[in-house]
Write a structure and sequence with these properties.
alpha/beta; Rossmann fold; Ubiquitin-like (UB roll); de novo design (two linked rop proteins); 4-stranded parallel sheet; 4-stranded mixed sheet; 19 helices; 38% helix; globular
Length: 473
């Protein structure tokens, strides 16, 4: 048993080698979540430095760092802060801690193992962007994360880091902890805001409800992901130049990646952004260490369950948003799901389709109806009762959700041109397309596995069955 004995099954939580650590440096300590440990390891020094600057100066540092959002969209955080309309108050910060994407579990660890880093990041964001209150929304199933964050908030209030006149400065802010109900759809920022307001978690139509303009309680609102905010203490303490010195120009800093599935060593790894390849992540000695049981790689999902799949041809693509997009997929929430050559591809797709169909909020007809039909039809195919017509129906339903050409994740292997991500969609948020992505990837990359399951036969008319007479004659 190593540090954090309950987490020993994922050695990737802890440092291997000389990789820089921006957000996971305290994970190696058994008491990483305590205020004492946070103080001993330089905690809240970033906040102190931020308060020595004018808010606009701190905001400019974040903008110059090109810190990209870590929740899935990858939008620059500093630019996002600048979208709030001038002279409109109050403004709010909403922290998206509702990590729900299949294969993703990095934010949960940040909240469980280093909650003060998140809190410090929230305070820096509120100061720099002129936000008067912070709402920290944590997924309902993450009981330990909720407990650790709640204790950290209590300690931070007592220490004078939260509340009135923080550290003797005129800056004042409160942080409200909110326990979500466990709905995938509230990972979408406007649905999360609806949930915070006590409504059903359903996405709002944009425009006009861009949160930076009209968000929580109708006020300008910045919604940031947990990992995004966890980077701010480093940037505040060391400056944007130190941050951009790591990674690449378009993807600076580090990033937390959850590697799961058929690898020898699954876990969460903090990687150098933009240069680490999928081959490094899956086969690297400091990462996944290769495919389990000596098997071969069959396919992998590069950015959480809603991302189009890649195959071995894409292993040398670096973990960089633009390159993944041009290859027909996305980096999304930072989750790599690995499937070896023993994987039943149609069954794997069914698992993901079932999840997204179940998680539809029901607001958009293509998602509510289409996701359910995709699941029902694919379930029939996997059971061996499908037909060629079922495959055609799946494509037709998919077109109703994602009209136009979909990305091909293995263009070189298939002899096709790659279609850049993202694709068109007929739903307000991404839940609808997420139901079609895995089945489209599976059918495109491995059509032979569906051909084996589908029985080709003509549609025959039903033969009426006559019931036996009751009592008999």
């Amino acid at each position: 048993m190593g540090a954090h004995g309950t987490y020993a099954w994922a050695a990737g939580y802890f440092d291997d080698g000389d990789r820089p650590q921006i957000v996971t440096s305290r994970f190696k300590y058994d008491d990483s979540y305590t205020l004492d440990r946070y103080h001993e390891s330089g905690g809240y020094q970033g906040l102190r430095k931020a308060l020595e600057m004018q808010p606009a100066e701190m905001a400019d540092e974040v903008k110059k760092s090109t810190l990209l959002g870590r929740g899935g969209a990858g939008f620059p955080a500093g630019v996002k802060w600048g979208f709030t309309p001038a002279g409109v108050w109050p403004r709010y910060l909403v922290v998206n801690g509702d990590e729900s994407e299949p294969g993703t579990y990095k934010d949960r660890l940040l909240m469980e193992l280093d909650p003060h880093q998140l809190i410090e990041g929230c305070l820096i964001a509120c100061y720099a962007a002129g936000l008067s209150q912070c709402f920290l929304y944590i997924r309902g199933e993450m009981a330990l994360a909720h407990e650790r964050v709640a204790k950290a908030l209590d300690d931070a209030y007592r220490a004078g880091y939260i509340g009135k006149n923080i550290l003797g400065n005129s800056f004042s802010v409160d942080i409200v902890l909110h326990w979500g109900a466990g709905a995938y759809v509230v990972g979408e920022e406007t649905a999360l805001i609806e949930s915070l307001e006590g409504e059903r978690g359903m996405p709002r139509v944009k425009p006009p409800y861009f949160p930076a303009a009209i968000g929580l309680y109708g006020q300008p609102t910045i919604v940031n992901n947990v990992e995004t905010l966890a980077n701010l203490p480093f940037i505040a303490a060391n400056g944007s130049a130190a941050y951009t010195a790591i990674g690449t120009e378009t993807s600076p800093g580090t990033r937390m990646i959850a590697v799961s599935g058929h690898v020898k060593r699954p876990g969460v790894y903090e990687i150098i952004n933009g240069t680490t390849t999928f081959r490094d992540l899956i086969y690297g000695e400091n990462f996944g260490q290769g495919i389990r049981d000596g098997n071969e790689l069959k396919a992998f999902v590069p950015g959480g369950g809603s991302a189009p799949w890649f195959v071995a041809d894409q292993l040398d693509i670096p973990f960089e948003g633009r390159q993944a997009s041009s290859a027909g997929s996305m980096l999304g929430s930072g989750a790599v799901i690995v499937m070896d050559d023993t994987t039943d591809i149609p069954a794997a797709a069914l698992t993901l389709v079932k999840f997204y169909a179940h998680e539809s909020c029901g607001k958009c007809v293509p998602c509510r109806e289409g996701g359910t039909w995709l699941y029902r039809i694919l379930e029939r195919i996997v059971a061996g009762n499908g037909t060629d017509a079922d495959l055609d129906t799946i494509r037709e339903v998919g077109q109703s959700i994602c009209p136009g050409e979909m990305p091909h994740a293995a263009s070189e292997r298939l002899g096709l041109d790659a279609v850049p991500f993202p694709y068109k969609m007929t739903t307000i948020c991404f839940v609808g397309p997420s139901a079609y992505v895995p089945v489209h990837s599976a059918m495109t990359l491995f059509p032979e596995e569906f051909a084996v399951l589908v029985t080709k036969r003509e549609v025959r008319s039903m033969i009426p069955v006559t019931a036996a007479p009751v009592g008999g004659e």
